[in-house]
Design brief:
Pfam families: ABM
GO molecular function: heme oxygenase (decyclizing) activity
Mean pLDDT: 88
Low-confidence stretches: none
Radius of gyration: 15 Å
CATH architecture: 2-Layer Sandwich
Keywords: Oxidoreductase
EC number: 1.14.14.18
Protein name: Heme oxygenase (Staphylobilin-producing)
Order of helices and strands: EHEEHHE
Number of strands: 4
Strand content: 25-35%
Number of helices: 3
């Protein structure tokens, strides 16, 4: 298995707009080969932002890479970063990607 995460520093006051974008978007994930599960995680509040992470689980790293090169990926990310509108920034910086090969699972 492979876990892909993006960490987002969401500007204070933009949390609802950020969550709404994720809740209403067409992810295109359910029909993608190798996709297992998605989570949107809300983390701690800091002085100027709230930390969020998107967390997807894939059958393999190759399945994730295939997704990133697909038309479904481009469609799902077409409006990324537009949650706040032109006059209101949502992110303090670009998302930070982290990818992990799963070496142990306990159920």
């Amino acid at each position: 298995m492979y876990i892909a995460m993006n960490r987002f520093k969401v500007a204070l006051g933009s949390e609802a707009a950020f969550e709404e974008v994720w809740a209403t978007r067409d992810t295109h994930l359910k029909q993608v080969p190798g996709f297992i599960e998605f989570h949107l995680l809300k983390g701690p509040q800091r002085e100027d932002h709230v930390l969020y992470a998107s967390h997807t689980i894939w059958a393999s790293h190759a399945h994730f890479e295939d997704w990133t090169r697909s038309d479904a990926f481009r469609a799902a990310h077409r409006n990324a970063g537009n949650a706040g509108g032109a006059n209101r920034p949502v992110y303090l910086s670009h998302p930070e990607f982290e990818g992990f090969e799963v070496v142990q699972t306990v159920k």
